[in-house]
Amino acid sequence: MEARVYKNFIGGEFVESSTGKTFERRNPADTREVVGVFQDSGADDVHAAVAAAKAAYPAWSQVPAPRRGEILLKAAEIIQSRKDRYSQDLTREMGKPLFEAGGDIVEAIGMAQYAGSEGRRMHGVTTPSELPNKFQMSIRQPIGVVGLITPWNFPMAIASWKMLPAIVCGNTVVIKPGEDASISTYNLVECLVEAGLPPGVVNIVTGYGPGAGQPLVEHPDVPVISFTGSTDTGRLVYELGARQIKRVSLEMGGKNPLIVMPDADLDLVMEGVVWAAFGTTGQRCTATSRLIVHKDVAGPLVERIVARAQSLRVGDGLQAETEMGPLVNEKQMKRVLGYIELGQQEGATMRCGGGRLTEGALANGHFIQPTVFTGVRPSMRIAREEIFGPVLSVIEVGSLDEAIAVANDVAYGLSASIYTRDINAAMRAMLALQAGIVYINAPTIGAEIHLPFGGVKATGNGHREAGPTMMDVFSEWKSVYIDYSGSLQRAQIDL
Which residues are known to be catalytic? Predict the structure, then answer.
């Protein structure tokens, strides 16, 4: 069957790129299958999309927020009705097993419901004035055209985290999805359009970072940029945005620690570690990549983890029995294999995994074995750099204080976890860990949309997606004072 050609979606119309170029996306589980052909867009395509979004903004920003929210709520119902089909699309384009792909779709449904409800709950603040016969309040207002650059690992969920709060606030959007997983963005926008979203409110331009992403970041008519991706790329986005004093929201890398104290339930820990280290093939910004375990329980815990990792069923995510899918592309596979080789060179002990899987049905995919290293020192690169693959580094410590110090001694600060039955230890860790998200007796993955999501240090620049703070990036505060005294009243004057 011939692969579908996806055109850019600009001003409510599907159009070919001005470059005349396209690129193929192949199934990472079987690269013989082309899952879609996409426009390799350039600056002219971005300019056309921004112009369409700018033209749609005046009318959309005046639509009452509850009505904007109703469109999102209707879209949630449409997404729900197509969950199975969209899950299969997602698995074919980026590789994660169907049960995980379904979770990606469920997050988008939840965000549509949550953001849609905010259309009737877009609160400001009212406070008493220090002067008589005067009323004061603050209100939210939209900003304009929002540029979104989204990754491939959660192609529908993360697109929804950014897009839906932006449009419920009254902005219009140009989105450049990750080139390895663009179909899910089309599926999300398809539902919004069917739910009643007017032309030009959301526009899709596909392509690569230099050709399509950078022109979007640099466009003078795009005052807001929201980016999720690597720290190196995020730094460039931040620098480019700063030149025009844009509002830039960054969600970048992680090197997430999971701490285990001697009183922890080791069977529970094993389940959490295996899920967090090898779920999504380790391709989550919140994946557990460092297991910081007290030396008193390191031996028995590692034995449990290695045994379970070796039993994981690796394969095509479309197969019901698959527990771990492929890496997203050949470049990422080579990168992860390079880190595995580096770990051995650094002197760590590889307890399991380490190789590419090429037998039988796996021959044409980007599959590698779940890998566990022990004897890892905090100074090793495999313990400090984001690998973004199914590689777990085990670091032994002798105390809670040492565990926290090791956990904090990296550039990143997204998610952290501690397993302990000691409430005092849990509370100390909760406050001391340098992370935007902390879990107690649960792994580092599994954030819910109604709490803020984001990190500190090199993980982000202070903004938060999801939760009650999600609209802060996409709206401006305006303070309003109404003086009905009939006379000049001077505030902050010492009488």
Answer: 251, 285
